[in-house]
Write a structure and sequence with these properties.
The structure is a single chain. It contains 11 helices and 13 strands. The protein is α/β, with parallel strands linked by helices. Strands 3-2-1-4-5-6-11 form a 7-stranded parallel β-sheet, with helices on both faces. Strands 7-10 form a two-stranded parallel sheet. A two-stranded parallel sheet has the order 8-13. Helix 2 links the parallel strand 2 and strand 3.
């Protein structure tokens, strides 16, 4: 099976590509190598992917319409796993145009390529951030998500709406995956675990927002990858029981689905920091700060649909996951 994996030099895209290549699939990895964070880390991920004979890299920006059209026409991908995006909740507060360009215009170019060139299944990344002001826990894909609190979340909600319209109009099989706080080896330097680890090892204080009163459904990267690959292998189908009178947001009369991919065991932020301190053998100096714009105090994933349809329940503990990250960090940075 040949896959297009967008964002292949990114955190999740790299790991998904590795998994597909390991089972013998062909991967065309697309990335624009954005300088949003250190491109050297992206190059290091690509260097590892290039060891596989089934991997080819295409340096391309999603916003380049003609080049994207040419790629789809030339390659005729059976499957597309779309993971490229302008990420980050807080960055979207100060750089809104980047999010519209990459996450809306770029998504349009991907979905148009799928529509016109016979893609069997589009699997794309959404986010737990779409739940926004929802407070009923755990977050369920059967809840309406109409109150995002960041532009990043709004663009991901827009992706879900665009995917549904293409599933309805053109029969494009499309599945969105709402990821919950992904962490692990080869992670992004702008995320909390990376920032905390660097600061603790350098003897600097760590910034703990909302005065530490945060709960997150921390989900280890291997569990995320397992969810992505299983869903990609299971093209979306119409829900025969769907009714417009009582519309289910997670499915449709069109071949459209949305799933949560999360650990479903939310942890207190202070417990997560504690696991990191134990792995590093050092105590963090903590600087407690107010909530940041665009953040929410808690996330928790209802993964009943994922477990039912794919037979998979993420379950890596934070102790194991954080220890694996620390081991990778020490090796990669020679610490």
């Amino acid at each position: 099976m040949k896959h297009l994996v967008t964002g292949a030099a990114g955190f999740i895209g790299y790991h998904v590509s590795e998994r597909l290549l390991a089972r013998g699939d062909e991967v065309v990895g697309l990335d624009n190598l954005s300088p949003y964070y250190d491109p050297a880390l992206k190059q290091a991920r690509l260097d590892r992917l290039r060891r596989h004979p089934g991997f080819r890299f295409v340096k391309l920006d999603l916003t380049e319409r003609e080049a994207m059209e040419s790629l789809f026409q030339r390659e005729r991908f059976p499957r597309v796993i779309h993971l490229a995006a302008q990420a980050g909740v807080r960055y979207s507060v100060t750089h809104p145009h980047s999010y519209i360009a990459s996450n809306v215009v770029g998504f349009l170019h991907v979905i148009e390529g799928c529509r016109h060139h016979g893609v069997e299944h589009l699997t794309y990344a959404s986010t737990s951030s779409v739940y926004g002001l929802n407070t009923h826990m755990p977050f369920s894909v059967h809840q309406n998500v109409d109150h995002p609190v960041s532009l990043y979340a709004a663009t991901k909600k827009a992706n879900e709406l665009m995917a549904h319209s293409y599933a309805h109009l053109y029969g494009l099989r499309a599945t969105g995956l709402r990821f919950f706080t992904v962490y692990g080896p080869w992670g992004r330097p702008d995320m909390a675990l990376f920032l905390f680890t660097r600061a603790i090892l350098e003897g600097r204080p760590i910034d703990v927002f909302n005065h530490g009163k945060m709960r997150r459904d921390f989900t280890y990267i291997d569990d995320i990858v397992e969810g992505v690959v299983r869903i990609s292998d299971r093209p979306a189908a119409a829900n025969p029981d769907w009714q417009g009178e009582h519309p289910d947001p997670a499915s449709s009369s069109a071949p459209y689905r949305v799933y949560n991919v999360g650990n479903s065991e939310p942890a207190e932020l202070m417990d997560f920091i504690g696991a990191l301190e134990r792995s590093l053998g050092k105590t963090a100096e903590k600087r407690f700060l107010p909530m940041q714009p665009g953040d929410v105090p808690a996330t928790s994933a209802d993964i009943e649909d994922l477990a039912r349809d794919c037979g998979f329940h993420p379950g890596t503990t934070i102790e194991t996951g954080v220890a694996n990250f620390v081991a990778w960090y020490r090796e990669y940075h020679g610490v």
